[in-house]
Amino acid sequence: MSEKNTYLPYLMTIEKVIKEAPGVKTYRLKFQDESEAAVFDFKAGQFGEYSAFGEGESTFCIASSPTRRGYIECTFRDTGRVTSGLASLEEGSTMGFRGPYGNVFPLDEWKGKNLVFIAGGIALPPMRCVIWNALDLRENFKDITIIYGAKSVNDLVYKEELKEWADRPDVRMVTTVDPGGQTADWKGEIGFVPTIVEKVAPSAENTIAIVCGPPIMIKFTFPVLEKLGFSDNQVYTTLENRMKCGVGKCGRCNVGKLYICKDGPVFSKEELNFIPAEEY
Amino acid sequence: METKYISQGGLAQWFESIIASGKRVYAPVNSRGQVDFKLVKNLSEVADDYIQTTQSIKATVYPKAEVLFSYEKEHGKVNLTDFDPDTIPETVLWRVHPCDAAGFRPLSAIFNWDSADKLHNAHLAKTSVISFSCANADESCFCTSVNGSPGNTSGSDVQLTVLPDGGAIAEILTPKGEALVALLPSVFEADRGDKKEHYLVDLPARFSLTEVNAKLNKAFNSTVWKEQSERCIGCGACAFVCPTCACFDIQEDVHGSKGRRIRCWDACGFSLFTLHTSGHNPREHQSQRWRQRILHKFSYMPDRLSVVGCTGCGRCSRACPVDMNLLEHITSIAKQ
Amino acid sequence: MSNSNEFEPKIIAFVCNWCTYAGADLTGTSRLKYATNVKIVRFPCTGRIDFLLLLKSFAQGADGVIVSGCHPNDCHYTSGNFHARRRWIAFRTVLDLMGVDIRRIQYSWVSAAEGSKWADLVNNTVADIRALGPYTEYQKVADYLEKEGFDEEA
Amino acid sequence: MKKLRERAAALLDEGAVSLVIGYEEGTKRPRPLFCRNSENAGKLIFDSRCFHNLAVYVTKKELVGKERFAVTAPISTLRSILQLYVENQLSEEKLLVLTVDLSGELVEFVTFEEISAYVAQFEMKRGEREQEMLTKIEGMTREERWKFWMGEMSHCFKCYACRSACPLCYCTKCVVEVNRPQWINPWPSPISNMEWHVNRAMHMVGRCTACGACGDACPVGIPIDLITRKMMEDLAPEFGFVPGQPAKQGNALSSWKLDDREQFIR
Q: Residues of B114-150 as b/e, b for ≥16 C-beta within 10 angstroms?
């Protein structure tokens, strides 16, 4: 029997560690086995199961763009047993990765459209992958707007890239922090993400909105987009329920008839209408 | 498929030859006031006077806890040791009820609907099932309502229907069944023309599956979940005795620099099953978890996997400390 | 050096920081010789020693366990050892009911001044455990999972 | 029974309570019933077959809501309610307790003091089954006890029905679900199963009222209730509490006495 053991992870070397925000780190991972790296492929929106050997596995998206080959990146916050195990690893050490799992953002379908990315807090990583993917194929899209908010200036992740995006002439970048989270020299917006979206979002015409954030942010941003004239098939999000297997077996992320890990994590708002909102 | 007759004495000889072949044999044994599958060596150990074992046979193909792989850390490097299917011994399950054998199909559907589950399939490949059709049932049994029957052969390699003379009709159903018969072919005599259906318990269907499925499609926001689940105390007894429940957890067993990743049973009824690290819990209330259990078995699985997640064995109803009777609840949904 | 065939008990000692650990330290500085079978784990207080740690020690291969802290009325935190004493009484009762060999857990009060008491405690415990032999009864059940799904009656 | 039904119906109709937790006929034996209107009160029963410990529900906020509710309580449930009260989990304003006494009269307890006085009339005794099994276990050597319990523990598959059925296991996050550190392995195995049950017994010292709900709930028939019962019996004289009656001065393991006696500390 030469069947592959789905649960056996790839061994990855942590090539680079970037401290993003308090408790938040980005790891750049390289396959230890070159032959695995050669055949590995993924698309924007997919996720994986990351192992800290000795602690267990945790689910996060692949935060790097599929257009940047040879490595993958993940960004996570140190919150539980596994993430703190991961956080204690250093450059050069080994961790595990299983994936890529789940569906993808339909970038091909979005050709010729305006894109508006709306993200909150630690939910920028799943967005970062698709943002870079879109920027690397910039000629395929019209206007690109990024709206990103966090609790405080300190909590904004990818600070270098935020600056890079803001400096690009072909990107409109809006950053915001929750009221009270600003510093004296803060030049961005102040306010919760839904409020800022209402203020700065582009016209709904020929535009796709991609929303990612904590459940509460998503639930308040959707009505704003609706008010702005976005129809349900113009709005996309990526969900994350608790997962163990990542491949539709363990039963945790089952919501209605769908498995977040298999039918998602990317959903259009139209698709979300078919699953019960209370269960994600 | 071939039908044969085997005498009472022949059955005993055949059993002995299976044991002699070196395969592990699990059969229902009565001990501590409960009948459950245990490793046996002699036919005399096997219980025959019971309606249902407390636990299903699923643990043979989906162990309660199983090593997915093991690893060793050394100077920042990690060495992995994959699960080895060759370590699983050949296993024969003797005197399995049809509702238990029928559980293999939904179980495999869950494990293989997307990617193949190497571990489950390895267990399945090494397991042969000799089922006994049912001459008795009790008020918790309802296999006939969920596409099953007391003589259902799904999941069985050989099915025996015991006759009044102590012999049995032997239906040899699969190549694995033929291999078991080949251990002692001489005891399998020509079919005497006994009618199997004469020896099966009469169990009228209690509800219509299509009707239930249709009702459930519209029942997500029904108050029925809250009403039915009020007395549910949120333990995992129903899920753990169920022949088709497959929800699992993945855990870590660490001893210094060595470790094993372990898959173990879990249950959607546990309050922390879906808890996010952030503290958000999509299924916060017991009623939501009860709804998930019923919908998953009777709506999601039929729609997504084309199998029902219930074989009508009635174990959950028997095991429940607070009498959450599945049959009663499903029939009441069907009647709504 | 002992004969390599002879059983050398592995003993874990859970001790409080303020009395017994200091006492054990004194044993060393007083150059008192005592058995080397003990590995010491230092806690802030006996009241802080979770009873499960004692069972974990056996599961990980210890043959005996020592738990020791300040004498009654000497607790650095006033009453930690009184709480611990109650817990030990209860714990012994439940372990005895379960059939765990409670002779393998030795409780003691050793103050910071009792360097020689610590040496005696260790020597006596090592002798006791040596007489009892290795705790294989416990250890062999501890590493499960090599077995398959169903329970195989011993 | 008639009186109980009438009283329950009246309480619900008057709006004195929003819910009556009681028993109804089940498919095999009586089971818990939640009456939210007087119509349902007709289903209420109360007899010697009613032994589910309904106190397990009184701490579940999603069930009992914010308004006043009532519970029908046989003696074991009364004992648990008292213990929950001592542990500040219940208030007299929110809970009305009903029982039917030995003469068949309906008794209504407005204060926990009344329950306490009522319960004090009943001595805590081993039932026939407990007596038989505990005598057997008490007669065993240590090695035999180890073998006996390891055999029993090998059947445990960690469904936690024992925990779920216990009125005093009301923690929202149990020690087995804590994973930093992971005290007890979450998968079933004889040692981790024993660790779980030892842990449960330790958390029950001086609190268990020996209602037997844990043992009754166990789907694989492990007599786990004997562990906590024996603990209660053995430790009551040591720690000076009366079995089945809540400690007046704090729980056994959160209090201590200068002269707690022992013979095992060297």
A: bbebbbbbbbbebbbbbbbbbeebeebbbbbbbbbbb
Lowest mean pLDDT among A17-21, C86-90, C146-150: C146-150
Question: Domain coordinates of chain D in residue numbers?
Answer: 2-119, 128-254
Q: Is C127 on the interface with D (CB under 8 A)?
A: no
Q: Using CA atoms, how far apart are residues A192 and A178, in angstroms rounded to an integer?
A: 5
Per the CB < 8 Å rule, is B323 touching D31?
Answer: yes
Q: Tell me which residue range forms the domain holding A61.
A: 10-101
pLDDT over threshold 70, residue A85? yes
Size of interface A-B (CB pairs under 8 A): 119
The answer for B305, left when phi > 0, alpha when psi is -120 to 50, beta otherwise, is: alpha
Look up residue A206 and give its DSSP letter: T
Sorted by where each begins, the domain ranges of chain C are: 11-142
pLDDT value at residue A2: 57
The per-residue pLDDT for C145 is 56
Give the dihedral of Cα atoms A169, A22, A246, B281; nearest 10 deg.
-110
D 73-112 residues with CB < 8 A to C:
none
**What CATH number has the domain spanning C11-142?**
3.40.50
Nearest chain D Cα distance for residue B157, angstroms = 28
| D179 vs A: CB within 8 A | yes
Tokens standing for residue B188: 């399998």
pTM: 0.93
A276: in domain: no
Q: How far does the CA of residue A225 sit from the closest CA of chain B (Å)?
A: 24
Per-residue pLDDT tens over the stretch D46-87: 999 998 999 999 999 989 999 999 999 999 999 999 999 999
Domain count, chain A: 2
Measured between beta carbons, the chain A residues lying within 8 angstroms of D185 are none
Neighbours of D175 (CB within 10 A): 16
Tell me how close the Cα of A268 comes to any Cα of chain D, in angstroms. 33
Residue of C nearest to B26 (CA): C150
CB contact under 8 A, B220 and A256: yes
* Residue B164, preceding peptide bond in cis (omega within 30° of 0): no
Residues of chain B where predicted confidence (pLDDT) is lower than 70: none
The answer to whether the Cβ–Cβ distance between C148 and B260 falls below 8 Å is no
